[in-house]
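To: structure desk
From: M.T.
Subject: fold request, one chain
Message: Could you run this one when you get a chance? Sequence is below, nothing fancy, just the single chain.
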Amino acid sequence: MDLPDLYQDIILEHARHPRNFHALAAPCQSAHGDNPFCGDNVTVYLRAGGGRIESISFQGRGCAISTASASLMTEVMHGKTPQQAALLFADFRAQITGGAPAPVPPELAGDADRLAPLTGVRAYPSRVKCATLAWHALEAALRGGGTVTTE
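Reply: Done. Structure tokens follow.
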């Protein structure tokens, strides 16, 4: 099996069986994201304590890329500080847009690598919004909530 096939399998697995796909009981923060271009929507819920994301989940409807990205994001973000979350998002965004790599500290390198299956969207610019929707909602939740849109 070559790398593109493995990546495709990981995306399909997360799309079919998303991790942390539920409304978090008693979240301290949440935000909704909407992509009116394709109809994807997601709500990210989180509970923070001690300066870290203690619990994170999501709900919504979207394409395979949107769902897989949200699922992978929730796995990676558990236990992260808001600053670490911002660094991982900056790196992820750079990877999928072909931008300059964002500096990721060594302790986050493994988490950044777990997001690599989504880097294939770089070849499909219209899908970048699908892949980043949940991430924008996470940013909004960390700022206190609200609604974000990709348009």
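Reply (cont.): Residues 82-97 form the longest helix (16 residues). Let me know if you need anything else for the meeting.
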